[in-house]
Amino acid sequence: MVVIQTTINQRAMTALARATRKTVRRGRNGPVRLLAWFIVLLEGFLTAIYIRGGLDGWQVNALLGSIMLACILSEDWVNGAIGLRRTPPDSREVNTAFQDESCYVCRAQSGEAWWPYQQVMAAIEMKDYFVLLLDRKHGQVFDKRGLTWGSPEELRDLIRKRTGLKMQRVW
Question: How confident is the model at residue 162 (pLDDT cuts 50, 70, 90)?
Fold first, then answer.
């Protein structure tokens, strides 16, 4: 058995959004990000051409490129903030017990939820978090620093054994 205490905050939700983007949303999100980077480069190129040619209007290109760059770089943070806003305040302190049985238990002030291991679609390990994705829009994040019983290795092995999934690493 492994017990982990997690505080759902902006940092945790950003990690969850990043894990989702880099795994289950990879195929759908990749082309959009590639197009966004192309637009940033194009706007930078146009800005340089306008400045070098002494033409007015380069500020618009620089502004559009900067806005697109800000969108790319803050995508996970924004998605995490939206997810955090949707999380009720009484569900932000979660104590989870991973059992050797067929499910794990999440307890918060709002109540208790039993989650079967078979429902997990992807298991991800990050530097500070473990993430279990249930589908493309739902997941759970667990802070490694909140381990009160067991070790990260035990949790990794338990998840691998119960879900049958390989633990993906996302940094």
Answer: confident
